[in-house]
Every structure is written in C-alpha cells, then in structure tokens.
Fold:
Amino acid sequence: MSASRIPFHQGQNDQGAALARVASRVRAALAEPAAERLLTARRPLFTGIGASYAALALPVQQLREQGVVTQRVLASEIEDGLGGFEADVLVGVSQGGRSSETLAAFRNAPAGTARAALSNVVPAPLSQLADVSVGLGNEPDSYASTVGYTGTLVALDLIAGALTGRPERVDPWRDIASLTGEVRARAAEVTGELRSRAAGCVAADVVAAGASRASAEEGALLLREVVRMPAAASATRNYLHGEMESAGNTLHVVFGSGRELALARSLAGAGHTTLLVTTVGVDAEVSVPDLSVLRLPACAEAARVVLEAVVLQELVAQLSEERGVPVESSVFANDDTKEGGVDPGDFEVASPVASG
Structure:
C-alpha cells in the first residue's frame, strides 16, 4: 500500500485538515493495548533519515526536558546494530515505511529491544518489522513532503506526551487546522515580499535552537530539494562560533525568540537577506531594510515547530517559482534509498539549475 501523490501546492492547501485527522488517528492508536511496549519505554532511541531524522529533534528535546534519557541517531549509523546505545525501544520513523537504512536498523536491532514504527503508509515494510506500529493514516502527500512531514511532527509530539504522562487536556492540536491556514496566509505575504532578493542568493543558512532545530534541518533540506539552493542547518550557539563568518550573498532563515533576535539583526545589518520567524514582537525591523519578520502566534512548542514548517513550505514554493524550478522535479533518482527502488513516476527528472 502507498499514499497517493499530490502536488506540493495541494499538500499546502489540504494540510490543516489533514493534521487534525492525523492527531485524531494517532491519539486512538496510542490508546490501544498494542502501544504498551512503546509507552512503557524508559530509554527510547529515535532513528530515521532525511526529513524523518530532522523531525526527531522535537521529541528528543521534549523528552529530555522531562528527564527522559533519549537521543536521535541517523539510521545509517545503526544499520549493523545498536552497539554503544542502551535502548529499550527503537523508534523508527519513515514516512513511506521504505527507507532502506531504517529498515536495516530494525532488522539488526538486538533481541529484547522493542521496535516501534511511525509512518504515514501502513502496512509498509517498516510496520511489518515492528512490534508496535503507529500510522498517520495514508494521507496523500507531495513528493517534497508537506503533510507527511508535519503529520510526523504531530505524531511524535503525541508519542512524547504519552511517554511522559502528559494530561489529555494539554493537547496542542485542537486548533491546528485554523492556525495552519492563518500562518500560511501570513507567510505568503512576507515571503512574497522578499522572494526576488532571496531567489538571487547563492546559498542559505537556516538557524535555530532546541526543538526548532527540526525546522532548521528541514528548511535546509527543502531549499536543496525544492529550490536547488545549497543550504546548511546550524544550531544557534554553534553558528555564532564562526559559522556565520561566511555570509555573503546568502539567504538567512532564523527561527527563535532568544539570541536569534540579535543574530537576525546582525545579519540584516550587514546587508544579508534575513527572514526571522519568531513568536515575539520585533519593533526594530522597520529600521533594518534587509530584515523580514514573520511573527507566529503564541502556542505550544510542538505546534510552533509545525507552523515553522508551514512557513518553510511557503518560502520554498515562492523561491522555486521565482527561480523557475518545478517543485516536483528532481535531479537524481537514487535507487538504493527505498526498499523496492524509487518510482520514476513520482517526479520529473530535470537538469540542475544554476544559481543566479
């Protein structure tokens, strides 16, 4: 079984309602007796590759804040087993359930380690290897993932909440459909104003801290995958320790409401196109011509990370149009990253685009 492919823009349009459905399905799945092996874990280890790995920054941050010993690891680093890791459950995330590296990690997990799969597509090879399987509901998704990625964030938050005994009344997803629409509309306005300057940049840096590191990593991936712009993700404090020195005809996307505020002003003040995505008011942006500010509504941390992804999706949609890159196209089709190979019909193979 596979989720049907939809255009990127349709994924954006349908996302709010889809996320509400995903939240309802995952809540129900976690209430089933079959989920007990996952929800009684004391040392969960999260693994994935690509966008799925990026999403794992959210639950790892949430669980550590609650005193749970956990981490995330690239699936490619544990293909041969879990040597060096003490885990009682391996949580594998793969939106289509076919990522070859995550499957290898599941197949080589030692006896006694429970395997929990989170995927959009069920049944899939990953869910068939799992002791516990949680599905998003086979939601239609775009090739450069929209609903699949944000739905994974929703599910990971609900898993983290269940692991730590979060009360049912504390649920960040009840208003997600309306919030998604509101933020996308605002993102279209802000990114539309900077798209010409941003599209002319030769590269991009995406910077964040804490749970928003998921957004930095997903942002860099989307800029590479959709816009064909070289991009890197950085943790805020590490970025300050030298990485930002290479700024020059670069786009900077900064997520956060702490040290990120001064960072964004510094970058824009030096003449670099900068987009700050924050939950606080920033009055000084009018005096910094190269600084664009998109203020998100106050909400729970996990919901904020989803809304950051909504902003990123609109940004890359605008830039791909400005640069003349079809959103659904791809330069390389690697046939060893998915079990069963890639489906050439999923996307148009196109030539690389030179930066302007």
